[in-house]
Design a protein that fits this description.
This protein is of the alpha/beta class and about 200 residues long. It contains five helices and twelve strands. The longest helix has 14 residues, at about 185-195.
Length: about 200
């Protein structure tokens, strides 16, 4: 399966390596023509407002929006989750995403750089715990009925927040699975994407 990795900014190289380790063929996507032949897309962590502007300046936004509307599976981590969320709080007024998943997220909801942390998550469908790296991570404040929560964390304030969610063939995480050395989240995404595009890797 060919999986595009949005390579405008952020940790796209780490995503490409994780996807390759998980058995996919990663393709760096910087321009609309790079989406040709791609079966799924990964939107990496980075800076969501910068990514939003680069999507416009590269001309990628309309092409990628069209593919997502047509049902192309997507993996969004950290900033990628923000881009896929239907509603974003604490974002810039001119910041635009794809509104693909019925959820509300708050930018940097877990705190700024100094509040970054790591923990082990229990993930629905996986055996054992999954290491998770949170860096200026968004908080999921609301999810719609079409969204399945696969993992949550409880903060110092006692509030439990979803950090890994699935909606159809879209998988989003507040954390950075590409930085942990554990590719099971990527494998989970690829399994869902394969069922969407068919056994031969194509719709």
């Amino acid at each position: 399966m060919k999986v595009g990795v949005l390579a405008l900014q952020g940790d796209f190289r780490e995503h490409a390596l994780a996807l390759e380790t998980a058995g996919a063929e990663p393709v760096e996507v910087r321009r609309p023509e790079h989406l040709a032949g791609v079966d799924a897309i990964a939107l990496p962590g980075g800076e969501s407002t910068t990514l939003s502007m680069l999507l416009d300046s590269s001309g990628l936004r309309p092409a990628l929006a069209g593919r997502l509307e047509d049902g192309m599976p997507a993996l969004g981590t950290c900033a990628g989750m923000i881009l896929l969320a239907a509603r974003v709080r604490d974002g810039r007024p001119d910041q635009r995403g794809f509104a693909t998943i019925d959820m509300t997220v708050r930018r940097n909801g877990f705190g700024r750089q100094l509040e970054s942390f790591e923990c082990d998550l229990e993930v629905t469908g996986l055996t054992g715990t999954v290491p998770a790296v949170f860096i200026r991570a968004p908080v999921v404040e609301e999810v719609g009925p079409s969204v399945e929560v696969l993992a949550s964390v409880t903060g110092a304030d006692g509030r439990t927040s979803p950090v890994l969610c699935r909606a159809g063939h879209h998988l989003v995480a507040s954390f950075h699975p590409e930085l942990s050395g554990d590719v099971r989240i990527h494998e989970m995404f690829l399994a869902g994407a394969a069922s969407a595009v068919g056994g031969d890797g194509r719709k």
